[in-house]
């Protein structure tokens, strides 16, 4: 359902940083992305309709960006460069700026990812270091490199993917990007109500207005921090939002129609496991 785009600059970056013995495999995977943006065998008519709608949304939002000169938080899911459902996942190696943070599997086979303190990225001038966050994923999920060519810019802090179950990404953005009066210890409540937050930031994730797409809204609290949890359709996506320090965190979990049907409970559990620590 989700189309995958690979710009020449991001593809070049992969070839530069990957070890020589992996470059041929990388080029092969990249060619598969270009030749087929989704797996027809696992894609329904509704999935194809969602794909066309999202692709149209990308073009419209790109036009607005060019006219305004202001880049959105995340242009849309189709601009995030995720592997297509059924495609191979490039496992994260010890690349510069990326430090592994996955635990060993527990008894159920799930692993916990915690953002390492040493991980670079997102430390702009005038902004505090990113407060670590964590989440849980089944054993076959792995980190996918984030390219500097992403349309979402440096605010996309992390990506993970599973060839069977779906994809996720984490957006970390300065809160003063949205309101000057927000301070260095902002809470999600200060940014707004759940309805205000999803109306403001949902379109930045899916590329379209979220009106009529929010299936459920929940407010959870863990260790004194409040989290807004949303389920949207179409496209199929869970979004967990919170704030810490002077940053807004958006944790987004998505999948194709078939992945959503088969692995809904696991995807929901991943989305609800997100914590800022």
TrEMBL record:
Domain of life assignment: Eukaryota
Region of interest (Disordered), residue spans: 98-121
A Pfam family reported for this protein in Swiss-Prot or TrEMBL: PsbP
GO BP: any one term: photosynthesis
Domain PsbP C-terminal: 133-276
Biased composition (Basic and acidic residues): 108-121
GO molecular function, one term: calcium ion binding
InterPro entries hit by this protein: Mog1/PsbP_a/b/a-sand, PsbP_C
GO cellular component, one term: photosystem II oxygen evolving complex
Record PANTHER family: PSBP DOMAIN-CONTAINING PROTEIN 4, CHLOROPLASTIC, PTHR31407
Protein name in the entry: PsbP C-terminal domain-containing protein
Originating organism: Chenopodium quinoa (Quinoa)
Gene name linked to the record: LOC110725788
């Amino acid at each position: 359902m989700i189309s995958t785009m690979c710009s020449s600059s991001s593809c070049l970056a992969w070839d530069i940083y990957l070890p020589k013995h992996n470059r041929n495999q990388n080029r092969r995977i990249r060619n598969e992305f270009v030749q087929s943006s989704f797996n027809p065998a696992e894609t329904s008519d509704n999935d194809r309709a969602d794909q066309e709608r999202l692709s149209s949304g990308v073009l419209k939002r790109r036009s607005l960006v060019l006219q305004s000169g202001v880049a959105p938080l995340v242009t849309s899911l189709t601009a995030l460069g995720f592997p297509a459902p059924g495609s191979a996942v490039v496992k994260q190696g010890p690349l510069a700026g990326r430090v592994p943070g996955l635990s060993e599997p527990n008894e159920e086979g799930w692993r916990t990812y915690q953002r390492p303190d040493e991980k670079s990225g997102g430390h702009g001038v005038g902004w505090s270091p990113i407060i670590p966050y964590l989440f849980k994923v089944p054993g076959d999920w792995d980190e996918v490199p984030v390219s500097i060519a992403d349309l979402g810019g440096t605010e996309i802090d992390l990506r993970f993917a599973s060839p069977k179950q779906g994809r996720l990404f984490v957006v970390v953005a300065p809160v003063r990007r949205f309101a000057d009066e927000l301070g260095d210890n902002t809470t999600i409540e200060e940014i707004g109500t759940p309805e205000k937050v999803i109306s403001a930031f949902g379109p930045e994730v899916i590329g379209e207005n979220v009106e009529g797409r929010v299936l459920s809204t929940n407010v959870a609290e863990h260790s004194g921090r409040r989290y807004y949890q949303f389920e949207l359709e179409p496209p199929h996506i869970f979004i967990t939002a919170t704030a810490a320090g002077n940053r807004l965190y958006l944790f987004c979990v998505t999948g194709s129609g078939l992945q959503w049907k088969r692995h809904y409970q696991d995807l929901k559990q991943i989305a609800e496991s997100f914590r800022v620590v």
